Amino acid sequence: MQIYESVIGDVNGGVTTGLLTGVRYLKDNRLLPRGFDKRTAEPDVAVHGGALEDADFVGASDRVRYSVAVGDARAPFLVQAELLYQPIGYRWANNLKAYDKAAEPRRFTGYYDSMSEASTAILAGATLRILGSKI
Fold first, then answer.
1. Which of 30, 34, 109, 112 is most solvent-facing, going by the fewest CB within 10 Å?
2. Sequence-distant contacts of 1-4: CB under 8 A, at least 24 apart
């Protein structure tokens, strides 16, 4: 299973959230607009990384498959999934905490910590009840 997220890489190929140290995209996690053609997109909005070859990562759609080992557990099972949107990513905001000697990042991360839960929106959700013993 491939899960895509927007990841920016530094000159050594490592992951970075620093805009001044980022030199290329490593992965892509956008929900593409309906009608978006990733094969003909302009370079400044192009799809990057493994998402380019993902056949079901298309305009207005993507499919994610999860596999959960249940061991000896028996049904019934309840599976719930939610698609969340958060305008500022957790990793990006928390990487700023390393700069706590300056007032601006300290103020920003304080705002983020106090508002991140309230700024998250549920875009979609699904629930599945599995009643039988075979999945």
1. 34
2. 1/64, 1/65, 1/66, 1/67, 2/50, 2/51, 2/54, 3/64, 4/28, 4/29, 4/49, 4/50, 4/51, 4/54, 4/57, 4/62
Question: Average pLDDT for consecutive 10-residue bins of the chain (135 residues)?
Answer: 60 85 82 91 86 90 88 93 88 88 95 92 93 68
Q: If you count them, how many residues does the chain have?
A: 135
d(CA 120, CA 107): 20
pTM for the model stands at: 0.63
| Rg (alpha carbons) of the chain, rounded to whole number | 19
